Amino acid sequence: MPRTKAQQREATMRALVDEGTRLFAERGYAAVGLAEIVRSAGVTKGALYHHFGSKEELFRAVLRRVQSDVADQVAAAADAEPDTWTQLTAGCRAFLTASSGRSARRIMLIDAPAVLGWNEWRAMDEAASARHLEEALAALVEDGSIPDQPVAPLVRLLSGAMNEAALWIAQSDDPGALDATDRALTRLLHALRAD
């Protein structure tokens, strides 16, 4: 049965994002050429330019997918917990685990700031995850689990710390890096709690 134009468009875009994700994760943005992406996706260079306009635009789509995948893992871990405090701690642990994987580490933490620039990367990072972290911390302030304080700076401090920790875990040769970071993060989060 022939596909509609919308189905064809969606399949082409999905193939380009799939192959872009795989290749950027394996070798990094700079080492991957457009010709390789389109050949691997089984489409023409014209199709890539039609749907994305440039390699950088394709990278943005890949980054959005990776961020969405990480956010889904964080949300699933948090949603499985019974209260706001364990939702925060489980979500933070899930973020460290998900973002220290090869695809997320390379695409989200290493290449994205370099390719897109710090300001655009931060804006995309905030759009993808800071809102959820802000909601979680605001709920903890509201229920008295952490002392009343401005939530916006706390979100940035915690988000920055977790991004750095995920990058360190991913680059570490220590097989216990994730567990050690999880223990340090647990101590850090518990320091936020109200007495």
TrEMBL record:
Pfam families: TetR_C_41, TetR_N. GO terms for molecular function: DNA-binding transcription factor activity; transcription cis-regulatory region binding. Residues 33-52 bind DNA. SUPFAM superfamilies: Homeodomain-like (SSF46689). Keywords: DNA-binding, Transcription, Transcription regulation. Residues 10-70 form the HTH tetR-type domain. This is TetR family transcriptional regulator. It comes from Murinocardiopsis flavida.
